[in-house]
Amino acid sequence: MKTENQKAWFFVLPVLLLVAFNALVPIMTVVNYSVQETFGNNVFFWQGLDWFEQILRSDRFQAALGRQFLFTFLILIIEIPLGIIIALSMPKKGMWVPVCLVLMALPMLIPWNVVGAMWNIFTLPKIGLLGYFMNDVLGVNYDMTQDPLAAWITIIVMDVWHWTSLVVLLSYAGLVSIPDAYYQAAKIDGASPWKVFRYIQLPKMKTVLTIAILLRFMDSFNIYTEPFVLTGGGPGNSTTLLSIDLVKIALGQFDLGPAAAMSLIYFAITLLVSWLFYTLMTKDDAK
Amino acid sequence: MAKITLSNLRHSYMPNPEGPEDYALKEIDLDWQDGGAYALLGPSGCGKSTLLNIISGLLTPSEGRILFDDHNVTDLPPNQRNIAQVFQFPVIYDTMTVRDNLAFPLRNRGVDEARIAARVAEIAAMLEVEEMLDTRASHLSPDNKQKISMGRGLVRDDVNVVMFDEPLTVIDPHLKWKLRSKLKELHQRVKATMIYVTHDQTEALTFADQVVVMQEGEVVQIGTPVELFERPQHTFVGHFIGSPGMNVLPAEEHGGGARFEGRHVALEGAVTGQGGKTQIGIRPEFVSLADAGLPARVRKVSDVGRHAVVEAMVGDTPVKAIIEGELPEQGAEVHLAFRPSHTRLYRDGWLSTEVEGAA
Ligand SMILES: Nc1ncnc2c1ncn2[C@@H]1O[C@H](COP(=O)(O)OP(=O)(O)OP(=O)(O)O)[C@@H](O)[C@H]1O
Ligand SMILES: [Mg+2]
Question: Which residues pair with B280 in a beta bridge?
Answer without folding.
Answer: B249, B345
